[in-house]
Amino acid sequence: MTLDEKKQQVIEDFSSYDEWLDKYEYLIELGKGLDALPEEKKTEDRLIKGCQSRVWLDSELKDGKLFFSADSDAIITKGIISLLIGIYSGATPQEIAADDFGFVEEIGLRENLSPTRAGGLASMIQTIKEIAENAE
Amino acid sequence: MQTYTTKMKVKELRDKFPILSTCVYGKPLVYLDNAATSQRPAAVSSKWNELVNTRNANIHRAVHRLADEATREYEGARDTVKAFLNASSREEIVFTSGATASINLVAFSFGEAFVHEGDEIIVSVAEHHSNIVPWQMLCERKGASLKVLDVDENGVLQVEKLQELISQKTKIVAISHISNVLGLVNPVKEIVKICHDHGVPVLVDGAQGVVHEKVDVQDLDCDFYAFSGHKLYAATGTGVLYGKKKWLDAMPPYMGGGEMIGTVSFSGTTYAPLPQKFEAGTQNLNSTPTLVPAIAFVNEIRADEDLAAEQKSVLEYVLGALQENKLIHLYGVPRRTEEKAPVFSFTVKGAHHEDLALILDKMGIAVRSGQMCAEPLMDRMGVTGMLRASFAPYNTLEEAKYFIECLNKAIGMLI
C-alpha cells in the first residue's frame, strides 16, 4: 500500500466507530498488538519528550526506507504511536518529511485528546518528522 | 438508606453549582477532581460580579465612596476568615494568591529572619511540591538542609519518627494537614505539640485540610496555616496565610510596593503594621471577598447532619469498593475511617493511570492522573503516577457508584 492508501485505510477504520469509547477500544487493540520494544532499546535518547506517559521510538533506514518500532507504558498512547508508525513505516524519509500529517485532524484524534495528550501526539509527529529529516 | 429529606438536600446543594448540570461528550459531568480545584457556587460568582459591576475601586487608599465600599468588602472577608479559622486577631490573617504564595511568603520572610547556614527544616515525604520547593529554595539561599519525615507503606505519616528528626538546628517543620494524594488527616495537633516541646514552630499546609476538616488554629496551636480559596469554592487567585502575630511581627516583608509601607523616602522606608506589611501592591480585591459566600456555604453544609451522613456514606462506599478490588492498590489506607478525607489515589495492576483517566473522561468522569505535584511521594511508593478521584459534598452516592462501575469497565477494556 502507498502512504496515501494506508492513511485512507486508517481514516475508514476510525470512522466506522461512532462512539469515542469504541475508537479507544480500537486504539487499545492496536496498542496490544504492537510488539514490545526490547528493554535495552528503552533508552533515554529514544524517549519522546513532551508525552505524559513514556513513549520510546526507534527507527531504522533500510533500502532508502524508514522503519519504526515503538513502545509505551500506557496502552492508548501505544495504540496511537502504533497507528502512526503503521502508516509511516516503509515510507521514504523524503515522503515523511514532506507529509502534513493532516489525517490526524481528519480522524479527530487531536481534538479528542486532552491538551496534555494532544501535546504528546504533536511530539510524536514532530519526532517522526525529525527522524525523517535527519535520515536524508 | 437515603431518606427523602437527604435526597432533596443533596439536590438543593447541587443546584447551587450551575456547572454540575453540564454534560461532557453528551454524558452528565461527574466531577471528581475537587482536590485540584473545587467548583464554585452561584453565590461566589454573583459576589464577584457584584463587586466588579458595582463596587470596583482600589482599596484602603482613596477617600471616595466606591473605595470605601470595596475596602469594607475586602476587610469583611478578613473578619470572616478570622472567625472561620478561629484566629485570635484579624492581623494574623494575610491574604495571598493561594496556598503556594502563602508558603513561599513564610519560606522567604521567616527564612530571612530565622534560618542560617547549617540549620535544618523538616517536611514530610508526602508533601505537595508547593510545600517542598519553597523550602529547598530557602535551603539553597541560606546553606541550610532539608530533613524528610517518612510515611509507612499505607501512607500513614510516621509521627513517632519526628522526635528523632528534630535537632537543635531545626528551625521550622512544614507539614500538610491532609496530603493531596493520600487523603489522610495528619495528627497536626500532636505534631505541633512535639515540635513546640523542642521550641520549633510549625507551618501547616492546609490546602486540602481546610476543605475537609474544621480548623481551629488556636486549638491546633500551629504557627502558620496556609490555604487556597479555589479549593474551598471561592474564586481562583485567592488565598490565606494565618500566622501567629509574634512571628509575623518578627518577619521582614516578602515583597515591597504599595500599601505595605509606613513612610517611604530615599533615606529609608518604614513598613505598615500587620497585615498590610505582607500585602504589597493592589490586592485581588474583586475575588478575595468571594471567600465570604464560600465560607458561608462550607459552614452551612457542615452544620447539616443529613449531608454529613451522606458524605460519610460516599466515603465509606468508595473506600470499600476500591479495597475490595484485588487489582487496585489504594495509597492512603486509614487506620480509622475518620482519618480519611474523600481523596482516593490508587494504581491498577496492568493498567496505566493515564489510560484509565482518558477512558473515564469519555464516560463523563473527571479524575486526575499522574504525579499530582508529589514526585517524592511517587518515588517513595515506587510508582510513576496514580489515578486520583477526589470528592466534594456535592458528589452523590449515585455518582460514586457510577464511578466505580465505569472504573471496572475501563479496567476491563485495558487488561
Task: Please explain how this structure is put together.
- The complex is a heterodimer of chains A (136) and B (415).
- With 136 residues, chain A is mainly alpha-helical.
- Chain A has a single domain, classed as Alpha-Beta Complex (Sufe protein. Chain: A).
- Helix content of chain A is 53%, strand content 12%.
- Chain A has helices at 3-15, 20-33, 75-88, 93-98, 103-106, 115-135, and strands spanning 55-62, 65-72.
- In chain A, strands 1-2 form a two-stranded antiparallel ribbon.
- In chain A, a hairpin with a 2-residue loop joins strand 1 (55-62) and strand 2.
- In chain A, helix 1 runs antiparallel to helix 3 (75-88), helix 2 crosses helix 3 and helix 3 (75-88) packs parallel to helix 6.
- The longest helix of chain A has 21 residues, at 115-135.
- The two termini of chain A are 22 Å apart.
- Chain B has 415 residues and is of the alpha/beta class.
- Chain B has two domains: 4-31 and 304-414, Aspartate Aminotransferase, domain 1 (Alpha-Beta Complex); 46-297, Aspartate Aminotransferase, domain 2 (3-Layer(aba) Sandwich), CATH 3.40.640.10.
- Helices cover 40% and strands 17% of the residues of chain B.
- Chain B has 15 helices and 17 strands.
- Chain B has helices spanning 4-15, 42-54, 65-85, 99-114, 133-142, 162-165, 188-197, 209-212, 217-220, 245-250, 291-302, 305-324, 353-362, 375-381, 397-414; strands at residues 23-24, 27-28, 30-31, 93-96, 120-124, 145-149, 170-176, 202-205, 224-228, 239-243, 261-265, 268-271, 328-331, 343-348, 365-366, 368-370, 386-390.
- In chain B, strands 4-10-9-8-7-5-6 form a seven-stranded mixed beta sheet, with helices on both faces. In chain B, strands 13-14-17-16 form a four-stranded antiparallel beta sheet, covered by helices on one side.
- Chain B is globular.
- Chain B starts with a helix and ends with a helix.
- In chain B, 48% of the residues are buried.
- The model of chain B has no long low-confidence stretch (mean pLDDT 96).
- The chains are: A mainly alpha (136), B alpha/beta (415).
- Chains A and B meet through helix 2 and helix 3 of A and helix 13 of B.
